[in-house]
Amino acid sequence: MKMNKMIELINQQLLETIPDSALGTNLEESMRYSLEAGGKRIRPVLLLETLKMLSKNHTYTKGIRTALALEMVHTYSLIHDDLPAMDDDDYRRGKLTNHKVYGEWKALLAGDALLTKAFNLISTDNAIDAETKVALTSQLSDASGHLGMIGGQTLDMESENKKISLETLQQIHREKTGALLSFAINAAATIAKVDTEVSEILDKYSEHLGLIFQIKDDLLDVYGDAEKLGKPVGSDEKNHKSTYVTLLGLEKTEQRLQYHVEQANQCLKQLSDKQYDTTELESLTQLFYKRDH
């Protein structure tokens, strides 16, 4: 229930930060359309729950604008991923994709505008000091840039219809999917100003969590429910896409998933030993592990 209230707050504030245009265009409508498309808000929730755990007074208010910025970066990436030049998808989460409603050029600009707005939210955040703003801006640009999410997407596109190694696949997922998940956790550590040891534990936890997320994605493409997933099951194999399942087989992929769950929980145990309440992060780890879509 607490997490649902957090998601409600995120949803409300995401839309409030993008009012109608003073220029008389419907660009903002296009931006809000994709922000409203649904989703579990995993990244901002992860940031806020981590910050709540790390804060002495168990509050997450200092991280709200950074969490919104993170979701905007994620949403922009989805808009661009859906374009004909990339994945060429007509639907996302049961709704027409942005370019199907507003056209390709406006979808491009909506994505660009969300990315730009994200950095504006952090730079104008009065809840954090200037040093923290600079650190978060640097971390988010790294996580979303050419050595992070965009670099991972590039490597993924270049690997289509090719047989790639497990090492390359892990590199794709570490950057394309894992970089923003890691940012969520590391940003909370930056805002809370934790010591180096705690920061390193959280960084390891974030790496395992990113791999749990992606390996589970690959497994759901084999045995998931198409209606819940919002896409056909077996699309990876049909599109000749390398996944953990195609490279390792189903049984070894399940074993690898279990390994990363155990390692993530071990990281949380280290934090618990330091008197941090890891209850919510334990729940999120299980959510990643047990999810069906």
From TrEMBL:
UniProt entry keywords in alphabetical sequence: Isoprene biosynthesis, Magnesium, Metal-binding, Transferase
CDD domains, per database record: Trans_IPPS_HT
Cofactor list: Mg(2+)
Pfam families per record: polyprenyl_synt (PF00348)
The family this protein is said to belong to: Belongs to the FPP/GGPP synthase family.
PANTHER family referenced in this protein's UniProt entry, alphabetically: FARNESYL DIPHOSPHATE SYNTHASE
Protein name: Geranyltranstransferase
Organism: Staphylococcus simulans UMC-CNS-990
